[in-house]
Amino acid sequence: MKNSKDNNRLIFEIFLTFVLLIFTFVSSWYGLGDSLNVLQRLINQESIVEISKQLLFITLITSLLYGGIVYQMCRIAYYIRRYKFKPLNLKNDLISPDAPPVTVLIPSYKEDIRTIWQTLFSASIQDYPNKNVVLLIDNPPHSNDEIDQIELRQARELPNKITYLFKSQLNFIEKRWADLSIQIKNDEISQESFSQEINQIFDH
């Protein structure tokens, strides 16, 4: 978590960079103005060599100033983002149903069906509560190759299969837990039997 000392340092960095950016703009204005005046005098003197040197000098200075201004603007944006950033409360946000929604995108192009299954399953069993797992299938939709058609059909079926798997497990757990709750309420099960039932539920 950020404290007031960190916030004060970020505010100081933003202010300092903003002051330096203004200084860069002002100095660039006067510096380039003087350089253009010199170039104008050289043009009047029709000195090709000196004009070329001055143009090269102006180009180099302009490039350096441009790089400096871009860097300072990026630095300001970086510190503003850090100042506004609010870290997650790992003890509450990651287990709350009201946690910010997260979408997990899984791209797939002619991937092995086992690889897709393992990836989808791994993403689905993560602890984050408010998540949505999306499989992006980029296989050719109208391929004449029979193998491509089979792989595409299998990939499209996987999300429904995994959803059915989780729902069936959830229904089983809810039913067994309801039965156990009644037995516990009626004092019909021992502590040892209860532990065994719980182990069987999670081993199912």
Description:
The protein is elongated and about 105 Å long. The protein has helices at 4-45, 48-84, 113-124, 146-185, 191-203, and strands at 102-108, 131-137. Helix 1 (4-45) runs antiparallel to helix 2 (48-84) and helix 4 (146-185) runs antiparallel to helix 5. Helix 3 links the parallel strand 1 and strand 2. The protein is mostly helical and 204 residues long. The chain has 5 helices and 2 strands, in the order ααβαβαα. The longest helix is centred in the N-terminal third of the chain and has 42 residues, at 4-45. Strands 1-2 form a two-stranded parallel sheet.
Secondary structure layout plus pairing:
Blueprint: H1 4-45, H2 48-84, E1 102-108, H3 113-124, E2 131-137, H4 146-185, H5 191-203
Parallel strand pairs: 1-2
Helix pairs in contact: 1-2, 3-4, 4-5
Question: What helical percentage do the residues reach?
Answer: over 70%
Outline, from the CA principal axes?
elongated
Major β-sheet, in short?
Answer: 2 strands, parallel
Widest sheet: strand ordering: 1-2
What is the string of SSEs from the N terminus onward?
Answer: HHEHEHH
Number of helical regions: 5
Query: Total number of β-strand segments?
Result: 2
First-residue to last-residue Cα separation: 41 Å
Structural class comes to mainly alpha
Q: Average pLDDT value?
A: 82
Low-pLDDT stretches: none
Beta content: 5-15%
Cα Rg: 33 Å
In short:
The chain has 204 residues and is mainly α. The protein has five helices and two strands; from the N terminus they run ααβαβαα. The model has no long low-confidence stretch (mean pLDDT 82).
